[in-house]
Structures are given as C-alpha cells and as structure tokens.
Amino acid sequence: MSKPAIIQSDNTVLLEVDNPEFESARDSVAQFSELVKSPEHIHTYKISPLSLWNAAASGLTYNDIHRILKQYSRYEIPEIVLTTIKEQMRRYGLLKLMPEGKDLILISNDAILLNEIYNTKKIQQFIDRKIDENRLKIKHNYRGHIKQALIKIGFPVEDLAGYEEGDFCEIKLRTITVKGHPFQIRNYQQSSVNAFYRGGGPEGGSGIIVLPCGAGKTIVGTAIMSLLQTETLILVTNTIALRQWRDELIDKTYLEPDQIGEFSGEKKEIRPITIATYNILTYRKDKEGPFLHFDLFNTKNWGLIIYDEVHLLPAPVFRMTSEIQSKRRLGLTATLIREDGMEADVFSLIGPKKYDIPWKTLEKSNWIAKALCTEIRIELSDDLRMKYSLAKDREKFRIASENPEKIGIVKKIIDYHENSNILIIGQYIAQLEGIADQFKLPIITGTTSTTEREELYRKFKEEQIKILVVSKVANFAIDLPDANVAIQISGTFGSRQEEAQRLGRILRPKKGENKAYFYTIITSNAVEEKFAHNRQLFLTEQGYTYIILNEEMFNDKFTR
Predict the structure, then answer these.
(1) Which of the residues in the chain have pLDDT under 50?
(2) What pLDDT is recorded for position 474?
(3) What pLDDT score does 224 carry?
(4) Cα dist. 61→65, 240, 333, 437 in Å?
(5) Domain co-membership, 510 together with 412
C-alpha cells in the first residue's frame, strides 16, 4: 500500500486524502506544520520555523518529527528538509533567559551566536553589557522586548527567568456547581492545565492552550487559577464574554461575587479577580492620545494574566505585555491563526503553544458535537451579474456576499430544520436586517445594547426564541449551548479565524444525536467562492469535510 505523504524540498508536505492512512497522517503532521491548501484530493502542509518552534516548546523532538515523516512518506525524505527541521528545532532553547540574583541574563552555549547578537544594532538597545562569551546582561524591564527582537531575526528565546508571585487569593473548585450539577475537570482539560503549569516551575507559567469552542477553555483557565491561588486579571473580547466568565467563576468556585470585578465601559471595579475587555484597555480619547486604562496591568500585584481569545489580542496590548513578562501569562484560543500575521508576537510575548488537540478527537469522545458542513453555491441574477462585472474588486465581494438569492436558501434551511435552534450569521448589517425583517426574527448587531443582547441570548437559551440573526459581534465568546444549526450568509473575506469561531458557536455537546449543522451560502463564479476556499482551510485542517451543493442539488435534497 502506498503511503499518504510526499515530502518536498521546499518544506511542503502533500497528503493524499483518499489514502487509508490519511487521517492519522494528518493529525501527526499537523503537530509541526500548517495547512496551506486543501482541494479535494491533495492537501498541502507547510513546515515553517514558527510551527517547528511551537512543536519544540510543546515537547516534540527532531527524532519525533523524523519518525512521523518516515512513517508516512511515500518516497525518500529530501535531506535538505531534515536539515532544516533539525536546525530550526535546535534554535528553540539555543538562547535562554535566566535569572542571576536580580539580573536578567541571556545565555547560550553558542558563543559566536551570542557575539553576533551583541553586535546587532536593533538588539543592542536592550543589552546592558557583555558578561562573558556565553552571557549577556539584559537591561531592566526589557525581557519582552529582547524576546520580540530575537524572534524577528529567527531565534526564539526559551524564557526560564521565572515569575513574580502575585498577591494571594484563595480559589477553590467546587465538586457540585452552584446550579447543582456535578463538576470535575475532563481528562484533556487536565492535560492542558498540566502542560501549562509544569509543576509551578519556570518551564511553565506562560503559553497558549488551543482548544475548540465548546471544549471548556474557561474551565481550563479557572483550574489554572485554582492551582496558582493568586489575584488574576482576565482579559476578554467583550462585555458579554466578561459576564460569562464571571458567572462561570461563581458557579464552579467558592469565590464570592464581590471578589470579582468588572472593568468595562459600564463599570470600573478592581477586585482580587478582575475581568476587563480589550476595548476598554485600548480606549483613548484620540488617535494620538495615551491609552487611559493601561495602568490596570500595574494597579494590583497580579499573579496571573489570562488572555481569552488570544488570536484577537489588539496590537497595543502586545506593547503593554512586553513590559509585564514577570507575570504568568495564559493565552486561550480555538485557533492560533491571526489575520494580522502577528503569530510570532504571540509566541514571544504570551508564550509558545503548550497544548493542542484535534477537534475531531474531542468529537469522537462526544465532548463536542459532530459537525456536518455544507456549502451551497448559487448564481447571481443577470442584472446583478452585469453590475458585478463592472464593479471594483471590493465592491464585487459585497455584491456577491449580499446576493438576494441567498434569502430563498435561508428559508428552505429554516423549514428543513424545523424546531431546531438556529443562528443566522453574516457580515453586512443591511443584509442581516433584511432577513430579520422578512422573517420577523430578532437581531443582534454592534449597536444592540449589552442589556438587550443578554436578554436575547437568555431567551434563545430558554428556547423562547428559536432563531436569532447575529452579526460578527457573535463570532466569539457567546455561550449558546443548544444552538445546533448555523447559517453563514456572508463573512470577512477569507478569514480562517472567523470560520473557526462561527462553527464553534454550535459545537457544544447536544442532547440525543449530538449533531450540529453548519451551512455556508456563497455566490458561485464570483470572488466570494475564492475566499470561501481559504475560509475552509481551518476546518479542513481539523478534519472536517464540506459537502458542496449547487442550487439544483440543494433543492433536490432540502425541499420537503
């Protein structure tokens, strides 16, 4: 039997989808590479320096990767690929940050490399002096800056400088929640906690945990808080997420409500556990003015800072994070993909990936719902096709995205999934408002007040309303456990990150068959079709396949 992988000298790995060993090869190769293309028969993975450094940080070795490639490779592995992997894996740990008394020292056994770093102009500003050929003393408060600078020239730093202990806060987990449900940490959640904590030593304490939406990232963060027993600052995407974190902490720990503060546009409470939104942290009166609330990082002696949905971390917060490297830092996310290309900054400032688990693995154990993904391709009307052909590129995307023919498809999906809990998700407000108005449905957009959002989410959870129209504000950090159908009518160009978040809205475990249905409606023979391919990359990487239907095929299947 032929093996499924072909390794090429440009550090790409081609995987044959129809091969019986495809799934096991995909899960193995994904540990140290990134999916870049996923047409029907051959998927292409890229082995990059960052993917290798993350693999090294999570405990994978060169020998592990060599064994995986050898196990699945159809042909002999190009020597240049093995050399590249060995070199990049060696780079992680080649430079270490260590404490010496009150000093911060960059050390390396490679004296020539350290001398080269010492003489690099962009890095000299962070160096106090050269101690000897293997040690450089770093200037006070430049721990994050030196790591950022070094990763940009291709040398990740293993940070073993340790952490300041924050002020004590007793955080004890319940075994029965306030709501009366049995509560215990799942095995994969405990594995992620252990990977981050590492016995409380300097090897742990900073890094990223990657888990699918619905897999309990909040619980992982809470469990780590209970290990550290320290005052904690939690940063979240919006006020709804803030209040969900607060409710979870009250439900699953013995923390009192008055120990948990809300720091948002509405309230400015600073308590032993403080939950703040990214928006309030990055607020300033004008573009040139100071960020008015950055002092929150220093207001208390935090022992842990949690960055929820770290893939959405605003760039200004990186700057502040570079100056608080002595604090333990936990990033939580469903995907490390950033649309701004700042993955290396996440690696150097928050920490490397410490734990990741394929979504399909959790699906097989029924920890998340089994998702069935369908793409429906429809045509533009003749009038709109003429308008489309004359439009500029950005306008073409909008014309295709707002194709009025999508409304009929939405209606048929709603009818087909009668009595299901349905989210209709889109990018363009006018399009969403049109659907909400036509079908008399409630809608949540960026202008919907927090109070009204919370009320609509409550009604949806209690099944007082069965269908909810939501804009991109619902891409992340909303807890709607019974939503089992998502209809995506438009998106943010080719955002893989957004695709992951939107599917995540319906992945929480379901009663009964434990299935969820994810529909994407796109205009065929238009720019939207090209962007849809890119969006699907992330889901393909996680093992999902799309059923692709044209309008005639859809009508045959979905007309009752």
Answers:
(1) none
(2) 67
(3) 97
(4) 7, 41, 24, 56
(5) yes
